[in-house]
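TASK: fixed-backbone design
INPUT:
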């Protein structure tokens, strides 16, 4: 199995602060993720000024009457901030990544040199957006929150029609509720997507905790995306459903361990690490009491005990009724 790609979704959890964004990069580096992802958008291109906030956005805000536009406007990253973040990521040896939410932002990310685009769940039915993304980027990751299989199929067709190779497409199973109730995760859907569309699959997680992403890796996810924050108590739409730095580090460590655990050849055979324990843990046929030469072996004079470097107990029936070729003392390994 190839290395699982872990995307730490900083998103808008920087709260518009470049200092916070730098600290998020530091936390992602410390956790050992592969990508840190932000969000690139112009509020006026993303949402109508009259649009209301989602329920989870309201619950995580001190201003219930604030519009979604006003909230997002405060969370925009300027071109200058993008350039500073990219430079800092290069300095820290972590890959900068971002999701574009409008056509202008798609063009901008291409200008920045990105060759991989992430389609957020809300844009999977946005045909002009999908076409533009397919024109600009050779690789794509598609999130599928709120989607049906038909939604996925139609979006996928946009990319394959534009010439995107299937091996350059990864589809992430996702549920767009913050946080996602465990009973709504439906993780087996990821496997159905993989089988039906014959593409690489992964999982974008909005549950609380780290269990579900780890389970997704055990099921075969090649990409994991998870929101993280500096502090869950900060004001902002995504903080409460995000991991804090130490939790992110724990998730990464667990995923790396699980990846190793499922990377075997699938054949049941002794591993190199356990072979040395075979003779210690298994048993052999031994003398239950002193046995004289030419005495017949029986259940009365034989026993099974450790170590396992003698005759295997699986040969018990073949040994019963035979004669001892020499004297044996109690606990001696029986030999022929």
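OUTPUT:
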């Amino acid at each position: 199995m190839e290395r699982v790609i872990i995307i730490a979704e900083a998103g808008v959890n920087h709260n518009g602060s470049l200092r916070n964004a730098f600290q998020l990069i530091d936390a992602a580096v410390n956790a050992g993720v592969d990508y840190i992802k932000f969000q690139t958008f112009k509020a006026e291109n993303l949402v109508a000024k009259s649009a209301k906030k989602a329920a989870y956005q309201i619950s995580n805000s001190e201003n219930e009457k604030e519009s979604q536009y006003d909230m997002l406007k405060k969370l925009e990253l300027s071109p200058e901030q993008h350039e500073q973040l990219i430079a800092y990521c290069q300095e820290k040896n972590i890959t900068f990544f971002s999701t574009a939410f409008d056509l202008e932002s798609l063009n901008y990310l291409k200008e920045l040199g990105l060759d991989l685009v992430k389609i957020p769940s809300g844009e999977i039915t946005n045909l002009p957006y999908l076409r533009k993304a397919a024109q600009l980027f050779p690789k794509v990751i598609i999130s599928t929150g709120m989607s049906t299989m038909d939604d996925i199929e139609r979006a996928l067709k946009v990319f394959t029609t534009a010439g995107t190779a299937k091996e350059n497409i990864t589809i992430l199973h996702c549920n767009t509720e913050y946080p996602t109730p465990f009973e709504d995760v439906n993780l087996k859907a990821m496997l159905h997507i993989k089988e039906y569309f014959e593409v690489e699959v992964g999982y974008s997680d909005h549950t609380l905790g780290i269990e579900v992403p780890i389970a997704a890796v055990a099921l075969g996810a090649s990409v994991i995306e998870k929101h993280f924050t500096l502090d869950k108590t900060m004001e902002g739409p995504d903080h409460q459903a995000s991991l804090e730095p130490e939790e992110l580090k724990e998730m990464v460590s667990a995923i790396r361990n699980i990846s190793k655990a499922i990377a075997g050849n699938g054949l049941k055979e002794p591993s190199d690490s356990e072979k040395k324990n075979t003779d210690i843990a298994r048993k052999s046929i031994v003398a239950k009491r002193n046995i004289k030469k030419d005495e017949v072996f029986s259940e009365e004079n034989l026993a099974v005990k450790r170590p396992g470097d003698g005759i295997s107990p699986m040969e018990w029936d073949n040994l019963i009724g035979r004669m001892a070729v020499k004297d044996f003392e109690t606990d001696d390994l029986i030999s022929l």
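COMMENT: The CA atoms of residues 137 and 163 lie 11 Å apart.
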